[in-house]
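Attaching the record inline, Q. Sequence:
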Amino acid sequence: MQIDPALFEENERTNPAENHRQFAEVGSLACNAGGVLPSVTVAYETWGTYTGDNAVLVCHALSGDSHATGWWSRIVGPGMPIDTSRFFVIGTNALGGCQGTTGPASNAPDGNPYGSRFPIITIEDMVEVQGRLLKQLGISELLCVAGGSMGGMQALEWTIQAPIPVRKAFITASSSSHNAMQIGFNEAARQAIMRDPKWKGGDYAVNDQPVDGLSIARMVGHLSFLSEQAFDIKFGRKLQKKEAFDYKLGVEFEVESYLNYQGDKFTTRFDANSLLIFSKAVDYYRVESLVGSESDYLVASFSTDWLYPPHQSEAIHQMALRAGCRSRHLQIDLPYGHDAFLLDAEYQGAALTRFLAE
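Structure, as predicted:
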């Protein structure tokens, strides 16, 4: 069996691109959990031409950003399922991020980074901020909101909160709430950061962040993003540039080298406090009913995704049906694990193309 090489190029696929980034001020925010942000800036990008009924909002996963045609290049772009030559596509960097939108590394009104002073935020807060941006852009209705993983939670929340009407929602490799295992993965990642002496309670210098803890946190996450099959096919028990064990505590196996590389490279493009803030937001999120939603749903899941298993997507689908909404759940059999949602254009892409055309 062949594995798509892009599956093992996570940092290269999701490295932020700033070429067309724009910024909007959307005012102060009283956060859902009680904190207040005096002023919020949103980084965003747009593609295509708005015709009044063709707006599509793309929401990113935990390590993504506004550049949807980069990290979701097989879904978003000219001729892709979310076709930027037909639709007016908006990508935002979520509230709490580190790619231009107000987050822990942003300067507070006193001119110093928020750091530990940045409030806990929720998925609901992210959607509120996105809604303000779209209203500023003159968008009165969304044809579709789309996202995977944390982005799928944002898409789901859009159909509940509906800052502006949402006709369709594409939710892939996501859930309506985290279970104990998912919270456990996130807590292990958070503790890796918070136990790094350089974290300093969240008040580290922007150019001297807790890179060791952040790297380990990303290794933990990366293990959950791929499948057992993918790891076995790619690495097995192959040794790293040697023929026999050294019987030392250094790197022996190729998979060890790979995880170290991915973890270390991640620290050059992401902020440790943003990872803490985002991971808490997804852990807090919970939806138990879609009653009142007026959206149609396409929910996709992947057979080997053990981080967001298919039964969680099925639960969203059933919730939509109980609310009287039109919904379809597409379960896709691919060996890639959770990150399949970033790479699969054949199955989810074809379904999404039909969904947008209906």
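The two ends are 35 Å apart (CA to CA). DSSP finds twelve helices and twelve strands in the chain.

More tomorrow.
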